Amino acid sequence: MKDKVEIIKSELKNDLDNTETLQDIQNLKVKYLGKKGLVTELTSNMKDLSIEEKKEVGKLSNEVKTYVTEEINNLEEKIKNEELEKKLKSEKIDITLPSTKVNVGGANILEKLIEEVEELAISMGYDVVEGPEVEKDLYNFELLNLPKGHPARDAQDTFYTDGDTLLLRSQTSPVQIRTMLANEEKTPIRIICPGKTYRRDDDDATHSHQFTQIEGLLVDKDISLANLKATFDVIAKKLFGSDRETRFRPSFYPFTEPSVEMDISCFNCGGKGCNICKGTGWITVGGAGIVHHNVLDNCGYDSEKWSGFAFGFGAERLAMLKYGITDIRTFYTNDLRIKENFDRKDAD
User: Fold this and answer.
1) 195 pLDDT more than 50
2) Rounded Cα distance, 98 and 96, in Å
3) How far apart (Å, rounded) are the C-alpha atoms in residues 138 and 178?
4) Per-residue pLDDT tens for 76-88?
5) Which residues contact 152 (CB under 8 A, 6 or more apart)?
6) Which of 206, 281, 317, 335 counts the most CB atoms within 10 A of its CB?
7) What CA–CA distance (Å, rounded) separates 216 from 188?
8) Cα-based distances in Å from 291 to 191, 263, 299
9) Residue 218 class from Cβ within 10 Å (0-12 exposed, 13-18 middle, 19+ buried)?
10) Distance from C-alpha of 165 to C-alpha of 184, rounded to nearest angstrom
């Protein structure tokens, strides 16, 4: 029995010296420790042995099994480490090499400005609401106190798609109408509605037949121009700087009464007068007013109990003032070099 054990150990040593791969390790485990392996065969005739012989054979077989297992496992661990080291060396990346430059896009100038206004409005408790760009004349004009034949329609002449009933909206005010009509419980409303609008207009440096509007609406009890002025003041200072002053000038809109033009002090000259503010020291950035009682009544709100204010900005105009853009057509070109200039200015 002892001679067999020594033979197994000697043969194992020779096999270990010639083992180089994990597959060789697996073959060794089968040869020595498998069901028909050399170590297993040591106890194949145990039933024919006496009790004393069984004890002796069992002890020797356990010892040699432990020895063989440890030797094979040690070599297996060594081979695994060597293969891992080779793999790491072959797959390593030299991080000192310059990386490949990947051109990435940037946010559209208008989208950046709209998101800035939206985030500010949300912080003030407003909801962002959207509506269809193909709109009914009923929502775009009639319920906004602009019946057919009203002369104020001329300033918002738009593109009709089905006679005089369907059109491309000339303002985002229809979203306000839809929101008030949908509010069957007639509770307070506080919304902002940005989106594309369309009007027949000359395409020049400051006008476009398509532009983006940002309108806001607040409906509640006891709302006055003071509330509107405070809201406009917050928006103006956020967009153009905390040192901006604001003012209202009387104006006319069919859907508000009273109506005002919203001005900010010129950020270029500080109100002293320059070519940007045309020597006045003030720049008009939008229109607003107290919601006309006819509009409230048309949408189911009792104008004797409810009041509100509405305001509107042209997103392109705000961006032109904020970024110093002189041509509105810049927003719709595909020259990314132009966009990069404004990204850098905004970061400053």
Assistant:
1) yes
2) 6
3) 11
4) 898 889 888 888 8
5) 146, 252, 253, 254
6) 317
7) 14
8) 14, 19, 12
9) buried
10) 25
- Percent of the chain whose pLDDT exceeds 90: 41
Phi, psi (degrees; rounded to nearest 5) at 316:
-60, -40
Q: What is the pLDDT of residue 347?
A: 43
Query: How many residues comprise the chain?
Result: 348
Instruction: Quote the tokens at residue 17.
Output: 């010296």
The residue written with tokens 């020895």 in the block is 67
Using one digit for the tens of pLDDT, what is the confidence trace for 92-103?
A: 777 776 777 777
Residue 310 has phi, psi (to 5 degrees) of: -135, 150
Query: For residue 13, what are its two tokens?
Result: 């040593």
Contact by Cβ (8 Å): 316, 328: yes
φ and ψ of 185, to 5 deg: -80, -10
Q: pTM for the full model?
A: 0.65
Q: What is the mean pLDDT of residues 136-150?
A: 90
Of 277, 280, 282, 276, nearest to 263 (Cα)?
A: 282
Strand partners, 198: 210
What gap in Å lies between CA 54 and CA 60, rounded to an integer? 10
Q: Which two tokens stand for residue 205?
A: 């440096």
Work out whether strand 189-198 and strand 127-128 pair parallel, antiparallel, or are unpaired: parallel
- The C-alpha angle 126, 194, 244, rounded to 5 degrees, equals 70
Where is 194: in which H helix or E strand?
A: strand 189-198
Which ranges of the chain does DSSP label H, i.e. alpha helix? 2-17, 22-33, 38-41, 51-91, 109-123, 137-140, 173-182, 225-240, 293-298, 315-323, 336-347
Please give the average per-residue pLDDT across 28-47, as a whole number.
79
For residue 342, which of 193, 326, 246 has the smallest C-alpha distance?
326
* Other Cβ atoms within 10 Å of 261 Cβ, number: 18
Do the beta carbons of residue 160 and residue 135 sit within 8 Å?
A: no
Q: Residue 258 pLDDT more than 50? A: yes
Q: Retrieve residue 165's tokens.
A: 């009933």
Cβ neighbours around 81 below 10 Å, total: 10
Contact 129, 192 (CB under 8 A): yes
Query: Taking the CA atoms of the chain, what radius of gyration do you get in angstroms?
Result: 41
